[in-house]
Amino acid sequence: MTSTATKPVSALLYRSRRLRLGSLLTLPLVWLVGLYIVSLALLLATAFWRVDPFTSKVTPAFQFDAFEQLLSNQAYLSTSLRTLGIALTVTLLSAAFAIPLGIYMAKIASPWMRGFLAVAITLPLWAGYLVKILAMRVTFTEEGFFNSFFGVLGISGPGFSQPTVVLTLTYLWFPYMALPVYTAIRQIPVNLFDASADLGARGWTTVRTVVMPLLMPALIAGSVFTFSLSLGDYIAAELVGGRTQMIGSIIANNINLNPPVAAAFAFVPVAFVVLYLLGTRRTGALERM
Amino acid sequence: MKKRYRALPAMAAAAALVLAGCAADAGSDGAGELTFDVPDVPTLEEKGDYEDAVDIIAWSGFVEPEWADVFTEETGCVVNRRVAGTSDEMVQLMRTGDYDLVSASGDASLRLIVGGDVAPINTELIPNFSDDIVEGMKGQLYDTINGKVYGIPIGRGANILQYNSEIVTEEPTSWDVVWEADSPYAGQITAYDAPIYIADAAVYLMHHEPELGIENPYALDEDQLAAAIELLQQQNGLISEYWSDPVAQITSFAGGTTAIGTSWEILRKFAADDKFKGTLPVEGSTGWSDAWMISTESDSPNCAYEWMNYTSGAEVNGKIAMNFGMAPANGAFCELNDEAAAHCEEFNALNEEYFEQVWYWTTPIEQCLDGRTDVQCTSFQEWTDAWVSVKG
């Protein structure tokens, strides 16, 4: 009885289950529904609106002109496919770097080395996104670091091109792949490696048959980040892409002049990500994330 | 030859007359179709006390501490600057209603006026808007509609052809070096990354393919637009990189990625290297003519009006022009001193013949701006859509 008197809030929450749940979920739900989903829905709804050809102002309507425009001009399709290709390449490259690095860090490296590498991977996250892209711009410009360093060996860099966009995005999103992969490998019991070796498996066979299956959820979690972040990016294409046009470039070009087309085209990356998530769900990996 | 370079101001003035309903038959050959429904927005009647601050959207270099601080000292209006990179960004920012003033180029101003985003200006409150303003910058279609003034001129300039004289050793006389497939600088060419750049292709075609019948690079029918896009697609194969961010353009030249391409005088200046030179080729060029416009929703109209007046005075207007690298709107600046005279000479400030070769940015609309009535021209949305297929 005394506790009710001294802690009225706790007592109230204890008595009412609804209140308890409500106080727990109100804030995240306001954020998720109110800010996140509603603003996204408002943006996508613009795709069906009418745009004044003179002033570029939009008025609410329900029409499919913007989607027809996307279908009638083949460049939208080729840009979508190019962006998809870039996002997939970035994801594969990140995974290809993250797995050996993760195995080394978790199983081979000394504690000092492990700490050093963990800092090295996360350190770039502390720098601004734009700063990192500009760093890549300085590196790959014609008279930049890459060409002056490797030029001695007769190697000339990719300049500002699609491969540079892939490299830059991989550089940007690599930590999001490396960290879950490293954590997952650390959690694999050492005795599984021993058992695998006892049964006669060499290193590579162990990686393929023991590590990889246990790693799938982490790889998929990481790939959701690298894939979707790459799909939406356009600053990298603008600053190091040269002639590269991505989905984001077109949305950025249209957002002021023709908002319905920008909104309609925004459905494309959303569709890609939904398809990707459905695909990974079928593998069962999402349940184990 | 002269005829093809029919000055846009002359045409615009004719159209403006028609718009005002004064001269429906004054040889405007059908431009009477060109009517705009402009929302009725009230004008400031008289000035009152200054507010605390004025929020300005401007091109880089228009609002600098050197003259903004003096303004703040004199009036108490703190100047908040927001630099915008493109006209489209300016239009979008103005529509938020958070800003009092914008330094709008011709391709933004029509949209802003017709959209009701900017208010007509009471020029009596701006004594510096006087006879000193150069002839070519008064009464432009895109800042004066229905006899009402919406814009106070700041300055004008051409989109120049900039080149690295270490690579391009001879001064180019034609834009062909950035358009033709056999250009010796293939792979080192830069182009402006915005749909308005289609007009640059049109200017080139106007000169080299007269059979297309382009009279005004901002009035393209479907066939003419297709021809311009085809030229841009050919150019795409020669491009090192497109630029929309001015800083990226400067580093593109400075870093050796780009040797030649479209530029602004201020970017050449910022590159701070004498090997970068600029020229206006024989075909003429696109260009811009900027004017201050005041927001319909301005909450500091008194500060805003005084800013427009302050920056229209010969001295401050000249400072802006020199800083940005353009021709000042106030011709009286040219007589202030030797430095000013040299600047005016370099930028052809008083040379209307030079500016007859420059097609100021204008919003392309469905009504043909060149007065044709037998076809429908392509709107800016169609340009934006077509621009997507340039880069593929």
Automatic annotation (TrEMBL), chain A:
The chain crosses the membrane at residues 21-49, 84-104, 116-140, 160-179, 214-237, 257-279. It holds the Pfam family BPD_transp_1. The keyword Transferase does not apply. Its main location: membrane. Residues 80-278 form the ABC transmembrane type-1 domain. It is a multi-pass membrane protein. Keywords: Cell membrane, Membrane, Transmembrane, Transmembrane helix, Transport. The keyword Acetylation does not apply. One of its GO terms (biological process) is transmembrane transport. GO terms for cellular component: plasma membrane. SUPFAM superfamilies: MetI-like. It is found in: Cell membrane. It comes from the Bacteria. Belongs to the binding-protein-dependent transport system permease family. CysTW subfamily. This is Putative spermidine/putrescine transport system permease protein.
Automatic annotation (TrEMBL), chain B:
It comes from the Bacteria. The keyword Transcription does not apply. This is Putative spermidine/putrescine transport system substrate-binding protein. Residues 1-26 form the signal peptide. Keywords: Signal. It comes from Microcella alkalica. InterPro entries: SBP. It holds the Pfam family SBP_bac_1.
